[in-house]
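Before relying on records like the one below, remember that each one covers exactly one chain. Contacts with other chains, cofactors or solvent are not represented anywhere in the record.
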Amino acid sequence: MKKGAGKTVQARQLGRHLRNMRKEAGFTIEEAAAELGISGPTLYRIEVGASVPRPPDVRTLR
């Protein structure tokens, strides 16, 4: 396994969890991103595990 591969798996798991929570709340990506003060593409990258949210972003998500 490549070094850092575990972080990728964790990022995808987190993204999947966040996407499920967003959908359960009835928000589109665009609506949720606007509420969070981030762009739609940024939220999309977090949800697919391509980007790991920064600590301030995680606090906003709570």
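Residues 36 and 60 are 6 Å apart (CA to CA).
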